[in-house]
Amino acid sequence: MTKTIVVTSGKGGVGKTTTSASFAVGLACRGFKTVVIDFDIGLRNLDLIMGCERRVVYDFVNVIRNEANLNQALIRDKHVKDLFILPASQTRDKDALTLEGVEKILNELSKTFDYIVCDSPAGIERGAQLAMYFADSAIVVTNPEVSSVRDSDRILGLLSSKTKRAEEGREPISEHLLLTRYSAKRVARGDMLSLSDVNEILAIPLLGIIPESQAVLRASNGGEPVIMDEMSDAGQAYADAVARFFR
Amino acid sequence: MTFTDKLNKIIHYFQRPEKTAKRAKDRLQIIIAHERNVRDKPDYLPMLQRDILDVIAKYVNINKDDVRVELDRQDDCSILELNVVLPHVETA
């Protein structure tokens, strides 16, 4: 059975794409055939983080509109076997993504992939809602900061009401908290929300804590997901998070 | 810069900064509790409340806070609870 995971947050800039890229690599490294989809139509960026920006020929919207087939649009990752990227379109047409179109593509991907990772855009508009609609699991990426925590709570509300599982009254989406840009030093000093503070407010199981790390910018500079920098604190934290996903 | 300004700056430098995380948590708990409370209710509830208020106001002199509309959900039915505080009227 294929599992669909949405990486979401509400707020922008908290690490959704960084997380999607590293998580997808982590899943593929464990031998699962994985595809990661960029749902941020008009603001494609997953390709840059994955280092395949120069190999984009067709995109998500081309496939929805039958201008290309899936195999033409899927980009094989150059680092890891069994990992593919479906890039977002750069169109300015806000209605390019349709529920039927997304469903058609996810169904087709389900035939060959074990995991589908959906990298959600920021906000709560169409792109974000479609990214979460078909999900089985959600990774809610949150910074220890008031606006991010509030937006995450808003997203949790949407996950429990505006998704296929919720509408059909099936078992709810399994929610996982990923706390990113965490600084234990600042928490100790009392000027950053702690893990237990955030946990108490959002009340969902913890998947991992990614420390604020210079390795994240270095990784994106080079187009190699930070999980591949195995010596770095953030890379190890992502590897731990993937491991915890299976526990 | 006066001497007191300079002195204040020096004092400020050595003061332990206030622990702001506690304030962040307190503020979040309040606003999120409020938003969760609103989130689970249908969009029409505030409008319904206003309409009911208008109808009652045609007959009695009441203000906005005297009417409370609550929607409770139980298993497979919803209960609309209407609470109106009428002003004390002197009967002749």
What's the helix-strand series of chain A?
EHEHHHEEHEHEHHEHHEHH
Distance between the termini of chain A: 18 Å
Helix and strand composition category of chain A: alpha/beta
Indicate the proportion of strand residues of chain B: 15-25%
Q: Tell me the radius of gyration of chain B.
A: 25 Å
Low-confidence stretches of chain B: none
What general form of chain B does the structure show?
elongated
Structural class of chain B: alpha+beta
How many helices of chain A does DSSP assign? 12
Instruction: Name the quaternary structure.
Output: heterodimer
Structure described in brief:
The complex is a heterodimer of chains A (247) and B (92). With 247 residues, chain A is an alpha/beta fold.
How would you portray this structure in words?
The complex is a heterodimer of chains A (247) and B (92). With 247 residues, chain A is α/β, with parallel strands linked by helices. Helix content of chain A is 41%, strand content 17%. Chain A has an eight-stranded mixed beta sheet, with helices on both faces. In chain A, a hairpin with a 6-residue loop joins β3 and β4. The longest helix of chain A has 14 residues, at 16-29. In chain A, 49% of the residues are buried. The model of chain A has no long low-confidence stretch (mean pLDDT 96). With 92 residues, chain B is of the alpha+beta class. Chain B is built from three helices and two strands. Chain B has a two-stranded antiparallel sheet. In chain B, a hairpin with a 2-residue loop joins β1 and β2.
